[in-house]
Amino acid sequence: MSERGDVVVLAHGVKSGHWEGRPFHEDEYTTEVFARQDDGTWRCVVSALTPRSTG
User: Is the model's pLDDT at 33 over the cut of 90?
Assistant: First the structure.
């Protein structure tokens, strides 16, 4: 994290659809880190998906 203002966003989502003709269903958490740039805009610097544990 830097002094200019970084933000961590955590979210939970359930997604489903088809990929390459196969159905999928995902229950996962998203973690993203945004860093404020020198010009005041925000940029996502890392994004990770973590499957939700069912046990």
Answer: yes
